[in-house]
Design brief:
InterPro entries: Acyl_CoA_acyltransferase (IPR016181), GNAT_dom (IPR000182). GO terms for molecular function: acyltransferase activity, transferring groups other than amino-acyl groups. By secondary structure, the chain is of the alpha+beta class. It has one domain: Aminopeptidase (3-Layer(aba) Sandwich), CATH 3.40.630. Helix content is 30%, strand content 31%. It contains five helices and eight strands. Helix 3 (118-134) runs antiparallel to helix 5 (189-201). The longest helix has 17 residues, at 118-134. It is globular. It starts with 16 loop residues before the first strand and ends in a 5-residue tail after the last helix.
């Protein structure tokens, strides 16, 4: 007999997630000043393969995310590094409670935390909450075809590529985006969790 799956319970409830290399807290309007300073680092909003707000658009972007949370479509987080500094933003999005699925996306980080343990830690925390806390059966990641760094980072997590959505979106510069879709299944999560924990436990250069 097949056991029927019940919908995700409280997928929009705000949570704090903490680890040695990163912590996630609910995004609020009070984070605007820190976010402006973070996006100004390296002028990262100029990247064309991802949607990062310019400093003057940070408040509007935060309100957009909070509006989607109020509408029951997103759970946005602030990401902080081990020292408590604002490092970026990420979200649970495209939340499908009935089918126990969601996407981790709308993620950006200040350049100085890239190639550190922060992203691995943040994804370990988010995936743990999605699978172990909420009971998801699948978690998706999506990125621009030409965002090769993002594609490599997602693959390093242990996600499998599902396919490419051709002419999926119109980007901010007016070009068409092919979207690469990855996912991790609940049956794969124990192995992925062990892989991520091994990465986090490795000795690091100081």
């Amino acid at each position: 007999m097949t056991t029927a799956l019940t919908p995700l319970q409280s997928p929009f409830e705000s949570v704090h997630l903490r680890g040695p290399f990163a912590s996630l807290e609910p995004l609020t309007a009070a984070h605007a000043a820190e976010a402006r300073e973070a996006v100004a680092e390296g002028e990262i909003w100029r990247q064309w393969t991802t949607d990062i707000p310019a400093p003057e658009a940070v408040e509007a972007e935060i309100e957009r995310r909070l509006g989607l949370q109020r509408a029951g479509r997103m759970l946005p987080f602030t990401v902080r590094d081990a020292a408590g500094r604002f490092a970026g933003m990420t979200t649970f999005m495209e939340i499908d409670a009935a089918n126990r699925r969601l996407e981790i996306g709308s993620t950006w980080y200040r350049p100085s935390v890239r190639r550190t343990a922060l992203n691995t830690q943040a994804k370990r925390l988010l995936l743990g909450h999605a699978f172990d806390g909420l009971g998801c059966v699948a978690v998706e990641f999506r990125t621009h075809f030409f965002n090769h760094a993002s594609r490599a980072a997602i693959a390093r997590l242990g996600a499998k590529q599902d396919g490419i959505l051709r002419n999926h979106r119109i980007t901010k510069n007016g070009t068409l985006r092919d979207t690469v879709v990855f996912s991790i299944l609940d049956t794969e999560w124990p192995t992925v969790r062990a892989h991520l924990q091994f990465q986090l436990d490795r000795p690091r250069e100081t």
